[in-house]
Every structure is written in structure tokens, then in C-alpha cells.
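Entry for MF3 complex. Fields follow.
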Amino acid sequence: MVTIKSAREIDAMRKAGALAAKCLAEMLKLVKPGVSPLAIDRACNEWTLAAGAIPAPLNYHGFPGNLCISVNDVVCHGIPDKRAFKKGDLVNLDVTPILSGFHGDTNATVVVGAQGAAKESEILPEVRRLIETARLSMWEGIRQVRPGATLGDLGHAIQTFVEKAGFSVVAEYCGHGIGRGFHEDPVVPHLGRPGQGLKLREGMTFTIEPMVNMGKRDIYVEDDNWTVRTRDGSLSAQFEHTLLVTANGVEVLTLGEGEVI
Ligand code: MF3
Ligand code: CO
Ligand code: CO
């Protein structure tokens, strides 16, 4: 069932979203060559608890981490392990704190060792283009969000943008309603046709989180039952925001400080 959030619930979602944005920014600062995903996992646990929140991923359907860390060809749901990051690795951090019972869910992808304007030029142009396509496809979806728009409008905008860039969108994993629950209705596909699917209404809260592969869209799940990888071994990038449908458009609940489209 798709729920419409009350004013009080929206207020709580704003606070959870703001905390998620801060958590993501703090964890991204730790991504450097030689640092392990497990170190970030521990930092995420400590940071979240110190902020008076709970890391939702931990033990969620048995997930063994405080956040998802997805490296290179890992599409999503990467389990933090002790294998240190190397310069040039493509790393996605996906954090979801629960604050006062409400979830904020956001993720971003960076290249290890590329932080700072000077070093950004060292990123392979095709990798940079993959990251920017994933990020901007999310914003193409967000731009569609308003009362009366349909989920198909969002999916179509994302899919069209990604395919024009020559990349592919993963079909099996989707955005989702969010609130007291981590994954609520509706399912929010990142592909679709204009005018199809659920009509958005003011007060709905959900995520958009397209996974964009450099090669084919096909994926498989590893034997650990979590780690999702591209079948062809190509790189995959993802960005995620938690959104609120407002009277005349959209509010991005997990917007980062100084984040620009
Ligand atoms: N944060 C992911 C999402 O965006 C879900 C991770 S589920 C977990 O929906 F169990 F792997 F944490
Ligand atoms: Co999500
Ligand atoms: Co997430």
C-alpha cells in the first residue's frame, strides 16, 4: 500500500534525510587508497549511533554491514570487506540511518584517489562519463516528480538519458517508497513508458536510485546472496536520493550541503 505522509511524518523524514546526507558526506571523506570497506563500515556504525540514529542495513534481512559498499563491477548491496581500496577504484557508498523511526536513504559513487579538482582530471574520461550519466539520470528522474506525474514518466526519463549516453540501466533493482519502513510501496523502476504506472500524489516519499552499467544491463547475484555484479564485468555507477512529492513538485530530502545538479 502506498502511503501519504502526514505533516509530522514529513517533518521526521526531513530530519532523517538531512542526517543521511551528512552521514554520506562524512563516509565519502574516508574513501582513500589503502582504506578498507570494513573501516568505513565501523565508522558508519559509530557515526550513526553518535548521531542518535540506527544504521538500517545492519541485519536487514540478514545484511552483515552498516552500509552497502559497492566497488567497480558491483552494482549494489556490496558487503563491506577488508580488501583495501586502490587508486582508481569506482566506489559507491549507500547509507540509510533510521532517526526517530524514519529512514533516510542516499548513495553516491566516487573514484578512489580522485578527490580534489586537480586529481579529478586523472579519472579516465569514460569512467567520468559513466559517473556523470548515473548522477544526471537520477536528476532527470527527480525533475519529473510532481503530483499527477506517473512512475512511467520517471523511468522513461532515466532510461532515455542513460541509453542516449550509450550505457544501460539495471532493471532488477528499483527505487522504493520509504518512511517508517526501509522499502515501502511503491516499487520505482528506472525504466518505463510515459503515462504508465502509479500516479504520484502530494505527500508520497520514495527514492530514485538508478544503477548504470558501462556495458550490458545484465546482472547476477553472488553466492553470498547479496553482492550484485554486472554479468559482463563492466563498471557500474549509482546515485540515490530520498524524495517528497510536494504540492507543485519535489523536495529532495537527502540533498547534500552545497550539492548542485
Ligand atoms: N540502501 C539500499 C537501497 O537503496 C538497500 C540496501 S539493503 C541492504 O535500497 F540490506 F543491503 F542494506
Ligand atoms: Co534505496
Ligand atoms: Co540506499
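NOTE: The first strand starts at residue 54 and ends at 55.
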